[in-house]
Design a protein that fits this description.
The protein has helices at residues 3-7, 11-33, 41-63. It is elongated and about 45 Å long. The chain has 67 residues and is mainly alpha-helical. It is built from 3 helices and no strands. The protein has a single domain (3-63), classed as Helix Hairpins (Orthogonal Bundle).
């Protein structure tokens, strides 16, 4: 997901997206532990998406929604 798309979301939607991504990361790590992970690069992509969401959340905290 692109950062521009994330900036359009509300604070509640960002929190929901963050929880969804963390849940997906947990499931991917679990699959990796039991050797059933099809695409190991998906873990890296999900971690980057989590970082993007957290960055947008922090930006909104600091500057508000008027960007």
């Amino acid at each position: 997901m692109k950062a521009a798309e994330l900036k359009k979301l509300s604070a509640a939607e960002l929190d929901a997206k963050l929880l969804e991504l963390k849940d997906e990361l947990f499931k991917l790590r679990f699959q990796q532990a039991i050797n059933q992970l099809d695409n190991p690069m998906r873990i890296k992509a999900v971690k980057k998406d989590i970082a993007r969401v957290k960055t947008v959340i922090r930006d909104v905290e600091l500057h508000g929604t008027e960007q």
